[in-house]
Design a protein that fits this description.
With 527 residues, this protein is an alpha/beta fold. The chain contains 17 helices and twelve strands. The strands form three sheets. Strands 1, 2, 3, 4, 5 and 6 form a six-stranded parallel β-sheet that branches. A three-stranded parallel β-sheet has the order 7-10-12. Helix 6 links the parallel strand 3 and strand 4. The longest helix is centred in the last third of the chain and has 22 residues.
Length: 527
């Protein structure tokens, strides 16, 4: 099997160790004790995409490698998590390094992105092959891990400051100059996220943190800012794709309107926009308020508790029906269709939280409000809430318990052990089905839509993987499962009856796991 992945962090965890190398393996046994709020830490800590795991794909591997510098607020929140590691493993999460990041004594671009991360890949050329234009002319090497780069957050290009606000901002010239420094070294950078987990002066971000105090990561901006448009144009001028992941919904909408020339700003010669490690809300944005169990102002943000849709229009079985995560970090229907119609690419995340999965052992699965609904928590800036003109009339209607996951259903699902493994896979099936059907509803035929989605696992990016798919070594099994069971899954859904027979599932699986990504990167490198 050949394997492509749009968004991976094979050595991120190793970079925080005081000793060791990029080939170190991390295991569940690194964790000392399981606290209630941290029950998922063993799954998050263990190695998910390691060179030894990738060796099981001898026919060729092509990965998007993330260059990322940890934000200052995140570093501060990670320090207390060291207590959950065994004493003999705590050096693998260096407290001195984290404290230097907090104080900006360890610079995001020079120290972390270049010297600590990029150089680790360059220095291990026996393992990693950085692709060039000639890579595709000569055939993809099979004896090394073939890589290109994506940058997760423009803060990673900035040494001068490590947070914005109170008169601080990320300088546009510094970002562009440091990007040009890498490009001058022929470092193949295909995509860049404008923002990540922490407030940026370029654009507002979507809330997306877990296991920590949420307050430092509240989004407080309002869509795209002038400096953000300048950076987007700079990326287009250099033939680099902006990555929509981690942008707030309004920021994404603003950027799309600028590409189309329908907003206050018009961007020129745009590249297709990507979302390299995405999940889907399962609905258009206009329907979003219908699934709010709670919307309440809390300081600079609106706290929104989102029920979890089981896509009731499909008429699925009520037993173990998969659900969506309907928070705004995920793509709405119109965004999926827009990306595909404009020639972009979507990478499907393997983070079970992003894909909507929850089980009774997850923290905070208690319905929280009236004990009825399982919910996902989102925080929207007050400025964006007002600018988006949220229809609170829809919010005030009671959420339909037949269309959403309730606590009662959740516990009933776990009462039947025989259905649990299928429930994991069906969350991925639900996303693939929704993607294809959303494109069809937008007038995009299957022949086109099946060419614009691939895997963007985010493995080893501190994600929470499915128990049955804890890492990249399990992706071959997932591909096999799609080939054998996806058509049967579709055949049971009422709203897929008119098109599922037209889908060549075997070809779709080949496209999803390799062909689409390979073709996209080849065209980028040779374009």
């Amino acid at each position: 099997m050949q394997y492509f992945d749009f968004h991976t962090h094979p050595i991120l965890k190793q970079l925080f160790s005081e000793t060791g190398s990029v080939t170190d393996m991390l295991g569940r046994n690194e964790v000392k004790v399981l606290q209630t709020q941290c029950t998922d830490i063993p799954n998050i800590i263990q190695s998910q995409i390691h060179p030894s795991q990738l060796a099981q794909y001898p026919e060729g591997v092509l990965l998007g490698i993330v260059l990322y510098s940890m934000e200052s607020y995140l570093a501060a929140e990670v320090i207390p998590l060291r207590q959950h590691l065994r004493t003999g493993s705590q050096h693998k999460l260096s407290e001195p390094l984290l404290k230097k990041i907090v104080l900006n004594d360890y610079k995001a671009f020079t120290d972390f992105l270049v010297n600590r991360t990029l150089n680790a890949y360059l220095d291990n050329s026996n393992i990693f092959n950085i692709i060039t234009r000639n890579t595709f002319a000569n055939g993809l090497p099979t004896d090394k891990i073939n890589i290109f780069f994506v940058v997760e957050g423009c803060h990673s290009f900035v040494d001068s400051v490590n947070r914005t606000g109170d008169g601080k901002f990320f300088p546009v010239t510094e970002i562009i100059d440091n990007l040009d420094t890498l490009l001058a070294r022929d470092i193949p950078i295909l995509a860049i996220n404008l923002t990540h987990m922490q407030q940026s002066s370029l654009c507002n971000h979507a809330f997306g943190i877990q296991l920590t105090n949420p307050a430092p990561f509240f989004p407080t901006g309002n869509g795209m800012r002038p400096d953000g448009y300048d950076i987007a144009q700079a990326l287009f001028d250099r033939g680099i794709h902006p990555d929509l992941k981690h942008m707030s919904y309004k920021s994404r909408r603003d950027l799309m309107e600028a590409v189309d020339g329908n907003g206050d700003i018009t961007l020129h010669a745009p590249m297709p926009l990507l979302c390299t490690h995405a999940g889907f809300t399962g609905i258009p944005f206009g329907s979003w308020p219908e699934y709010m169990s709670l919307a309440r102002a809390e300081g600079p943000v609106v706290r929104v508790e989102m029920a979890k849709s089981i896509a009731a229009d499909s008429v699925p079985s009520q037993d173990c029906a998969p659900t969506f995560n309907m928070t705004t970090i995920n793509l709405f229907d119109e965004e999926i269709a827009w990306i595909v119609a404009h020639g972009g690419m979507i990478g499907l995340s393997m983070d079970r939280r992003i894909l909507g999965y929850v089980d009774p052992f997850d923290a905070d699965v208690d319905g929280r409000l009236d004990g009825d609904f399982v919910v996902d928590t989102d925080f929207i800036s007050l400025a964006e809430w007002d600018a988006l003109n949220i229809d609170l009339g829809k919010f005030r209607q009671k959420v339909n318990p037949m269309a959403c996951l309730t606590v009662e259903k959740l516990h009933a699902n776990w009462g039947d052990q025989s259905k649990q493994e299928r429930w994991y896979y069906d969350h991925i099936f639900l996303h693939l089905k929704h993607y294809l059907q959303t494109c069809l509803h937008a007038g995009i035929p299957l022949s086109k839509s099946i060419q614009h989605i691939t895997i963007g696992s985010d493995f080893d990016g501190l994600i929470n993987p499915f128990i049955t798919m804890p890492g990249v070594k399990d992706m071959e099994r997932l591909k096999r499962y799609i080939r054998t069971d996806f058509r049967g899954y579709l055949s049971q859904l009422e709203d897929a009856s008119g098109w599922y027979r037209d889908l060549d599932v075997n070809q779709f699986a080949e496209n999803l796991f390799f062909e689409n990504g390979y073709r996209f990167v080849k065209n980028f490198m040779q374009g």
